[in-house]
Amino acid sequence: VVFFLSDYGLADEFVGVVHAVLLRQVPDVAVVDLTHGIPAFDVRAGAEALARAVPHLGPGVVLAVVDPGVGGVRRGVAVRAGDGRWFVAPDNGLVGPAAEACGGVAAVRDLRKPGDAPATFDGRDVFAPAAAALAALGTPPPGAEVDPASLVRLTPALATRGSEGGLVVLRAPVTWVDRFGNVQLGATGDEGPPPGADGILVRVTAPPGGDAAPGARPTSFRARRVRAFSDLGDGELGVLGDANGRLAIVVREGSAAASTQLSAGGVVELVW
Amino acid sequence: VVFFLSDYGLADEFVGVVHAVLLRQVPDVAVVDLTHGIPAFDVRAGAEALARAVPHLGPGVVLAVVDPGVGGVRRGVAVRAGDGRWFVAPDNGLVGPAAEACGGVAAVRDLRKPGDAPATFDGRDVFAPAAAALAALGTPPPGAEVDPASLVRLTPALATRGSEGGLVVLRAPVTWVDRFGNVQLGATGDEGPPPGADGILVRVTAPPGGDAAPGARPTSFRARRVRAFSDLGDGELGVLGDANGRLAIVVREGSAAASTQLSAGGVVELVW
Amino acid sequence: VVFFLSDYGLADEFVGVVHAVLLRQVPDVAVVDLTHGIPAFDVRAGAEALARAVPHLGPGVVLAVVDPGVGGVRRGVAVRAGDGRWFVAPDNGLVGPAAEACGGVAAVRDLRKPGDAPATFDGRDVFAPAAAALAALGTPPPGAEVDPASLVRLTPALATRGSEGGLVVLRAPVTWVDRFGNVQLGATGDEGPPPGADGILVRVTAPPGGDAAPGARPTSFRARRVRAFSDLGDGELGVLGDANGRLAIVVREGSAAASTQLSAGGVVELVW
């Protein structure tokens, strides 16, 4: 099995061609498309999606391509995690969080070949063949073993907890807005307000480095800690622990992103 | 084989994770994605799509997830149709029309387990494992047999036929607008105007419960009963029996939805 | 293996139903979706995508459906290329360039049956069964052998090379804008400016037959010939030979289509 994630989208034939290359090399391979809807060039969003998916995968190789640096000096790598799972990807931080979830990085192989020409479609020409080799043989294609410490890693966007007038303030990045408008935060469900908390203040602030209009004040909302969507009334904002163990801001049968104007990369403060 | 339909979209990893769960449990399963483009929370649109697809499916289990009530009190069910086909879905009406097309509902099993925690991703945690069990063994996971009559059913949106000044008036709901802009109605091809009918009046009225602007009059168009797109001239509106045996309003190489501003949930009157 | 390309999109169940039909007829078939994101009715875009994909496909039948003439007088055909690969498609030019890439058209079989009813979903009812028969048996379904010269062919959109005040002027159609905004031209990488060329003038002109506003002058930009995205500075426009051997206008980690307002069907002049 090859699990395949990318920012290729489905409008073009990129994904289909990678499938064809995998199948040509390993005729009985099964390819599972995790998603190809990662926003173009958004390595962090790809890393988040991969980390959410990886606990649910059975045996198989992960092929992940979100690759703004294609054709440049960045390495391609095959990464073996502590639990034995292989990842094939550009070395730009994409597989870091997923590999952590699989026991950390145990070994790294450099997929560059001497004299490689500049290229624009390494997913087809480099990463798919490497993933196919791993799927067929369990061994990566030839390449230099490199120090796991040399892997590029993303700076994690962490939640911070403070206080304000006797109240708890949890400041957390928005890591994902899903198709239903659920707003997932970079914090675990346990870090959020306690069960039953009501009147939680949700303060939307500018993203880090973002330009707030002069004099603009954060927009704020009220929310309630719930266990499930169904605990909420129509249009009511809720905070819950989601299916990935993360804290999320939600609306029942509606879009919390539309209600709050939050999007991935934004920052929110919960005060209770 | 598992046939999988949902409103998960393809931007997120939901569909991929469900595939992974199925494959992990049944390594040789083939998963056919019927569509994941059902509008979010739109149970009726999902039920229509499933009913259109099911006559063309070979042996296999149907996994259908359009689930606005996830985490609430709605049941998850495994439904066996009269022809032996199993459906796994939330009990919200989603599989009713498709099960009817397969000989009606023969048996229903409740997939809830005592002590189930509230949840936000039952597709992954409840329905996929149940579908996998059915695909592997042909038997559903343990669960109480419940009365088929207790299944939630959608109120069908039916066409009605009347007359007006000696003319036939067929009032029909719009059940689907496809990617090409073909407007499918909740009526069979046979219920429509006879072959060769010309000058059919197509009256667009407000959707049931919709707010028509005060004094607004229905917009109307003229159409011709045809056998195929190719019988139509450029931009001409046609009425035909479509590939699902339904009456549809169409434009050759163009969008009847764009021409008429009709969309799913709307209502149209054909007068001839 | 069946390789499947269409303009069906993924919002509806069209693609899923075709998969189901293939699988029903050939239980162990593997179906690779090349793409279903071809713009509706855009035969030329489909032909381009198919020609780009086909060099990377292993053994298997190609099923291609972009079919504005469905239900009309156009034929359905099974086309055998010089290298033995079969294509199943409407006879509207869709498979021409891909078949050329496979050694030209060796044989053509007419898939029409006497008495065929008008239809709206030949992908499901005609082309998928024919592709399944080919995948299972290697032989096409019964049908009249017809003259390969009778196949409908698209007029190729060719680049032309001229001169202007001692400079080279390459006038080329835009054949594709991909998801990342790379603008692919109907010219090979070798036909473009030489390595290292700087200050290349990129003149955007009206598409053939397009209406330029009276007095409108072409918009122009400057670009540099590069080997890879990474040779470019932020926002800088580049010209390179892409992964399909074609000339393309690109921006590093950005959209050349957004920068230049070029889209498929447009025409551009490169002057150096």
Rounded Rg of chain A: 21 Å
Question: Largest interface, and how many residues on either side?
Answer: B-C, 35 and 31 residues
**What form of chain A results from the Cα inertia axes?**
elongated
Strand order of the largest sheet of chain A: 2-1-3-5-4-6-7
Runs of chain A in which pLDDT lies below 50 for 5 or more consecutive residues are none
Oligomer: homotrimer
How helical, in percent, are the residues of chain A? 10-25%
What attributes does this structure have?
seven-stranded mixed beta sheet, 272 residues, seven-stranded mixed barrel, homotrimer, 5 helices, alpha+beta
Topology of helices and strands:
Three copies of one chain form a homotrimer.
Chain A: E1 2-6, H1 14-25, E2 31-35, H2 43-53, E3 61-65, E4 76-81, E5 86-90, H3 96-101, E6 105-110, H4 122-137, E7 145-146, E8 160-164, E9 167-177, E10 183-188, E11 200-205, E12 219-225, E13 237-241, E14 246-251, H5 256-260, E15 267-271
Overview of the structural elements:
The structure is a homotrimer of 272-residue chains. By secondary structure, chain A is an alpha+beta fold. Chain A contains five helices and 15 strands. Chain A has helices at residues 14-25, 43-53, 96-101, 122-137, 256-260, and strands at residues 2-6, 31-35, 61-65, 76-81, 86-90, 105-110, 145-146, 160-164, 167-177, 183-188, 200-205, 219-225, 237-241, 246-251, 267-271. In chain A, strand 1, helix 1 and strand 2 (31-35) form a beta-alpha-beta unit. The model of chain A has no long low-confidence stretch (mean pLDDT 92). The B-C interface holds B 1, 3, 5, 10, 30, 32-37, 49-50, 52-53, 56-58, 176, 178-180, 182, 227-231, 240, 242-243, 248, 250, 252-253 and C 8-17, 19-21, 23-24, 27, 40-41, 68-73, 117-121, 124-125.
